[in-house]
Amino acid sequence: MTVENRLLSVLACPVCKQPLQLDADGAGLTCRGAECGRGYRIVDGIPVLIADEELATASVSGSLDA
Ligand SMILES: [Zn+2]
């Protein structure tokens, strides 16, 4: 937990640069930006700070006619 707290002190949302907050279940991070609020996963103890937009672009590209 100490390590995670130290990580959180230096991590910031890659989109809006606001600090990140550890989810209650410890399985992810949530951006504290009021106008952002993006969620990020933690895989094997390593936060995956990939913006939703990047993931969305990959999945949306094939369904633009929806
Ligand atoms: Zn953000």
In terms of structural class, how would the helical and strand content be classed? alpha+beta
* Count of DSSP-assigned helices: 2
- Low-confidence parts: none
Query: What is the CATH first-level class name?
Result: Mainly Beta
- Ligand set: zinc ion
What fold name goes in the CATH topology slot? N-terminal domain of TfIIb
Provide the domain count.
1
Task: Give, in spatial order, the strands making up the sheet with the most strands.
Answer: 1-2-3-4
Alpha-carbon Rg, integer: 13 Å
Structure explained in plain terms:
The protein has 66 residues and is an alpha+beta fold. The protein has a single domain, classed as Single Sheet (N-terminal domain of TfIIb). The chain has two helices and four strands. It has a four-stranded antiparallel β-sheet, with helices on one face. The structure holds zinc ion. Zinc ion (ZN) binds next to loops. The site of zinc ion (ZN) has 8 residues, from loops.
